[in-house]
Structure formats: C-alpha cells, structure tokens
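Q: My collaborator sent me two sequences in one message, no labels, and asked for predicted structures for both. Can we handle them in order? The first one she listed is below.
A: Yes, handling them in the order given. First sequence, followed by its structure tokens:
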Amino acid sequence: MEVQITSENFKELKNGNLPLVLDFWATWCGPCRLVGPILSELAEKYDGKIVVGKCDVEENEELAMEFGIRNIPTVLFFKGGQQVDKVVGAMSKQVFDEKFQSLL
C-alpha cells in the first residue's frame, strides 16, 4: 500500500500495526524519480505487510525538518513506531528489497 504522508497522518501510520517505509522526495529531484517506481513496485509486492509512504519535502517542510532531511531522496524505515534504518540517495531495487525484508 502506498500513501501520501503529511504531518497530520504521519504519527498514526508510524505507530500503526504495519512497518512504515517513508520516502522523502520532491518533483524536481532526478534521483527521486529513479527511486519512486522501485518503491511503488515494492509497495505492491508487500501490500498488507508494509505501508509505503511518500512525503513531498516542499509540501511538508516541518516533517522533513523533524528528521533532519538535507538530501533527497531519503527513505526512512520504521518498525514498532521507531526508526530502524535509513537510506540516502538512489539505490538498486535489490538493496531496497533487502531493507523491506528486514522489516518483516
């Protein structure tokens, strides 16, 4: 499942029953356009097991600042309400798939 993340729904999703993968991105970011389809594909693969969220840093500056996001794409991984991993920059589908597996 892929959802839009905002300051309003972040805490509920972070503390939900499923792990959360949070992608900080922007429309003008080239590497973000490479990572986006990979995460969308993995969102389908892990549907019902992991929630994948997209957070546009320009529309949600306060959330990006809360996590000290300085470079995008930055992907944060949450389990049990706690951040357990982080990836900065574009990575291969295999790397992201391994990160998803570790959340289960």
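Q: And the one she listed second?
A: Here it is, processed independently of the first:
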Amino acid sequence: MQRQRTGDLKLIQELNRSIILDTIRKKGPISRSEIAQMINISPTTVTSAVSELIDEGLVCEDGVGTSSGGRKPVLLRFNPNTHSILGVSITNSFIRIADMNLEGQILRKEIHPTNHLKGEDIIELILDVVENFLEQKPNKDYCQGISVISPGIVDADKGVISYNTKLNLYDVPLKQLIEERTNLPVFLDNDANAFVLAENYFGLFSKYKDLLYITIGEGIGSGMMVNGSIYRGFLGSSGEMGHMTVVEGGIKCSCGNRGCLENYVNWPAIYTRIVSAIIAQRRDTIIKEMVSDDLNNIKPNIFVEALNQEDELALEIMEDILKYLSIVIINTIHFFNPEVIILSGEIIQKNPLFLEGINELLVAKAIPTLKEKINIQSTSLGSEFELLGAAAVILHGKFKFQIH
C-alpha cells in the first residue's frame, strides 16, 4: 500500500511539473505566484517544480514584474534552446531528419531518398540515417529524444507501425529498434495526427476543439481532434480517409480494395494522369514547356503554376480531384461536424483556386444548416509542416504539453 501511495505521489508530482512548464511556455514571462493562482496549485509545489526546471535549463528567470505591495515578483519564461530534439518524418520517397530546439526551430536538416526500399531494407535505412545524423550532432547529452512520424496505421502507445502497405511494414516495433540503436527515448505517431498537434502548438488553429486535418501528398492522410483530444480509434486506424471508396469498382488500391480516394487524388495519380494526357492523348499543355519536354521534372509546384496560368489540362485534372475529395469531405462533415478543416500538401500551397473550388463544392452539397458554417483553410505551418509535426509529437509525449 505504501509503495502504491509513493507511486501515485510521484505521478502527481510529474503531472504538476508538466502543467507548470506548459503554463510558463504559453503564458511567460510569468511569476511563480501567478502560476499557482492560474492552475490552482500550491505556491510551495510551484516553487519546488520551478527550481528543478531552472536547474535543468528548461526555464529561466527573466526580469521582474509589477509589485502589488511587497517585493517585485521574479518572472519566468520557457527556455527552448538549452535542449534539443530530433525529428524524423518518413514518407514513401524520403526520410527527413532535423535537429530542432523545443519550439520546433530547425537547426540542421537532412533529406534522404528512400530509393524505393521497402520492408526490412527501409527499416535499416531509417536506423542508419538516425544513427549517422546523431553522430554528427554536438551536445548529444542535451538531446531530449527522437520523434518519428510515418503514414499508415501506427500504434502510438506501443511505438509500432502496424500497417503500411506502400512501404511493406507490418507490426514493426520501430520505437524499440531506434531506442536500442541510439539509447535515447523515442516517440512514434501517425503523420496526420502529428500535423494536428503541430497546428495546435505552432500554428494558428489552437482555438478549435473539433478539427479535421487532411494532407495530400504521396498518399492521403487525415487526422481528427475531437473535443480537444486526438481521436485515434479502437486500433489506432482512425483517419484512413484515403481508403474511402469514391468509385465503385474503380482502380485497384494497395489496400486490396478498389476505387479508394487516394488513387485519384494523391500526387502519383495526378502525375500519371498528366503524363498519360501528354503522351497517349497528345494533349496541348503549358506543362510541357515548363519542364522543357522532360516529363520527369513535372513536380507539384509545376502543376500548381499551370493551374494559376489557367492551363486547360491542369484545370480539368483539378476539377476531378475536387469532385472526388468533396465526396469524402462532405460525408465527414455530415458525420463529424468539425469546426475547421485544414488542408496541407504541395498541391495546396500557393493554390487559392483549390481552396475556392473545394469550398464551393462543399457548400453546394452541405445540408442547409451547415452551409454557412463550413470553414476550410490551408495549413498555417508552411513548407516544414512534416518536421513541425514530429516536434509536436515529442513535446506532447515527453513534456506532456497540453493541447490548447
């Protein structure tokens, strides 16, 4: 019984410490007494926790506040630069890895192509990339851990990639494998869930409690926040929006089904359609001129530029993308009723036509009471949203920073 009480007390102390650190991060510069009042914790507890946080370099004293009669209170602020974290983003084509401070500022970054590796080979490449990057890192002792994000179904609690057909990964204990290689704590999560956290920590959407995030890239990922918490589902497989059926009996998908959304909307599908139109149908398009007839150089930014120049082929493709995407989003709106829907991915960036087009279709399809409440936005995280997602996972997991 005594051991249980001791364990409970330690857990409470750790929770209080996390809440105090998070309060300083969000509200600082702030005094010890203000913290105690704000979160309803005793001044003694705050003073003890702050002393530890200062010793660890996570918090520093920063000037004095206004006196209400006695001595002027010493103000505290979060110090993100004393410690660092490693963020790793895995996609089908690239492994991005970065050394970051505790506010997600990138200090050093590398991008490694996956070279179409799958299964055990891609796992070995991930381990080598992380180990080599860490060897070049100064002040390893100040690294608080490694955060890894990946598409597919991820068991975040166990640190396992449960299901990823494109990389041929099934029940891979990636957290354990990296920890054994590096001797650092590792946090693993689904990439879209990570982006939801990042929008909350680093972006402009912290005021929303019910949120849908959709990313369009090599696949389609989505994450949901329900009443201020990430919704993972029974087996961690919530958000597999890319595998909703939009064409009955359509294109065969890697998941085994046919007609899945991601086979019509992801970048490989868009690229294939552009190349097929140019070669097989001999379509006239400015995309050919933009890449000097080298079709290998067609990238998402080229497609977006062609859209902005009102290229007929690009507009035709986007019309179909919006048609299929709107089917899934409107079904999700009617079922889930999110406050805001956030879109990210290279075909979204600098592409106002996309947001205008999808909003128009959603308004047309929504039930009357929702028409004026549809709120669809592009990501506020910019081009580094993947690594910011990785940073958010470790801040949430290790420091227990709270969703706003």
